[in-house]
């Protein structure tokens, strides 16, 4: 169903987006006489510059699904380069058009990606007719008519962004090399990417039909027909599982997803002596578990890219085989999930966070024992290098000087977790011995030693097999060398869904648990429709709602003392001394997270609505657009605890997950907190005269700056997704907001649990991994205390309990 994925762009952008810095202009192309509404992206964001413009029919006709486009892209040495446009704004789940110089002509390709992975050719009926092109040594331009381009359908992955709202969000990306030849894979753009908002009303042109007629040899233009702008995909039968038959056997607990939560919960359950099967869809990550992905300089060692702290940012450069391909956000689909690919920031939870939004039994006092257990196993360190030296601390020192001068206090954050107001610190990480550890290096190690514990990798779980509210096992979906068939529960056994916010939501939807419209999408899908659980067995719960993420606002400053360390270059060509220090002593800058993080600092902002909102600032030595200086620092402002805004997740017909409602700044006090805190930071920064603000620029007000950033995941995300299967007593079965009860058991079921970031009722101050592990510890105790799942109706979550 096309309409199900409509992206409400107008609500994502404020009119202030069109402040002088970002406004589009009317531009008449000299060669064709066509007038476009044009956005220019300057050299500071992409070498050689980029331009996109469009003209729309004077009045919407037919499916309102076409435009005349203008792309001007950079040509690099050898006549190479490509320039892309996203018709939905984001890269995943959107029709992407790539244009490129090809000798004297300009080539174009439509492509499509389900996640932040290499796209495939688009198979829908978007149609491009070239009107004109130019290729020079430094730029190319192409003018084209694009039909069936605002609505797309890639084998059931439907979406649209019709020019009917006040604002459309357009994405762009550029590469300095040519597109891949046939059969080769696309490579990540290396010349910038971002988004801008554009107002379609200003692009409507009464001359549109004349231009079309002129450039299609006098043909009278026919508007794109309204009765089928994109064909439904050729109906195909469901694909069968690829893999080997699963070993026979049954288990007391089946945990789906070996991420930050799945690993500890599986370990703790197996401690009881019960049999536990942990199923992970991705391949091994750390070397100790059989991981193999590594740069040349790690060949011959037992280390992989995941072990080495300084390589953690590689996921943004080369995500092939690591990032999930079925969700529209960045996430690790490998053993360890996010805990294998993240920057390893590791915080003793702020007690107020539990007390503020968690229910009875999950408040700070209740979580203390689980917190102590977690930190005993993963203490964290503020100095990851084994020689005890903090390398390249200039960025920290510059900002710390300003913070101290303004009266902020330096703390050891894991010793005083409650001190998050006007405090700062060099952050702690879940590294040990100069390598990534966290849940992988602790809980998984002890679990693997137990005979009653089994781990299957490269095996996705398709759905939970259930009879009413009682799960009997899971159906497997294979993978690279993984298993097909089923894994069964022992009588009284339980399934624990720990597949992350996106993965758990998807798995519940495919198991017939979630809002009716989402289950209908699964029911209508080619892959799952024919075998989907009967509608009479659906469990209607608000799965996917209550979605939240830290609201990110990137600020940039520079100071002459600061200097950038090229962690990206360290992938292929590390500085020899740094490489040797790491390999021989697990010391040096490569034992620290890329790209040189710190300081982190915090404050609470009281809102006019009586809510205290928490702000965390996470600094790193790296410029962000439009700044390019090697002396720049990006300071990411995260708005967390207290946010009122919420979003939602949806599934499309190709069974890909996407953020259908972004959770950013819908509430005016959320917005006010962001603005007020940036003003405080300006005051802090003014204490050190040598610091220059780059973003926002001196002539832009904080209000205009904050309002100018689209409220889309691509521009606002922090990758700290939470909340899609909220824990609480107000059962969603009765119109409440909660998906699981206080024992993490899904309402309306007897033995299905969710244990991961999905449970969080509201956001927190810091990065979430440590909280998620603590939640897993606590959940395991609750689940064990429940004993066997029972058929007795009285044991169903949501049923009356006396
Ligand atoms: C790039 C990046 C950097 C980050 N940096 C930090 C940081 O420094 N500190 C911090 O605290 N947080 C950080 N985070 C966030 C943190 O990593 C996540 O919040 C956390 O990992 C979520 O834990 P989880 O258990 O809910 O899910 P995940 O850790 O995502 O685990 C889910 C697992 O389930 C598997 N899975 C999914 N579907 C299926 C299926 N159907 N069958 C079988 N397996 C399945 C996935 O492959 C994955 O391994 C970062 C996140 C990203 C993406
Ligand atoms: C192997 C190929 C590719 C990979 C791995 C990849 C990966 C990524 C990643 C990780 C981002 C987010 C960057 C960030 O937030 O810092 C991104 C953004 C983007 N990409 Fe790609 N990309 C690829 C190819 C393409 C192609 C061919 C296009 C064609 C138009 C494209 C268009 C975009 C756009 C418009 C954005 C900005 C919007 C957004 O973040 O969603 N990408 N890409």
From TrEMBL:
Domain Glucose-methanol-choline oxidoreductase N-terminal span(s) in chain numbering: 328-551
Q: Pfam families in the record, alphabetically? A: CDH-cyt, GMC_oxred_C, GMC_oxred_N
Q: Which Gene3D superfamilies match?
A: Cellobiose dehydrogenase, cytochrome domain, Cholesterol Oxidase, domain 2, FAD/NAD(P)-binding domain
Identify the residues that the record assigns to the Cellobiose dehydrogenase-like cytochrome domain, covering every copy.
27-209
Q: Where is the composition biased (Pro residues)?
A: 222-236
Write down the InterPro entries for this protein, in alphabetical order: Cellobiose_DH-like_cyt, FAD/NAD-bd_sf, GMC_Oxidoreductase_CD, GMC_OxRdtase_N, GMC_OxRtase_C
Write out the ranges of the annotated region (Disordered).
Answer: 179-201, 214-243
Record's keyword terms, sorted: Signal
Compositional bias of kind Polar residues: 181-197
Q: Which Gene Ontology terms cover its molecular function?
A: flavin adenine dinucleotide binding; oxidoreductase activity, acting on CH-OH group of donors
Q: Which segments constitute the Glucose-methanol-choline oxidoreductase C-terminal domain?
A: 645-776
| Highest taxon listed in the record's lineage | Eukaryota
Q: According to the UniProt entry, where is the signal peptide?
A: 1-23
| Similarity annotation | Belongs to the GMC oxidoreductase family.
Protein name according to UniProt:
Cellobiose dehydrogenase-like protein
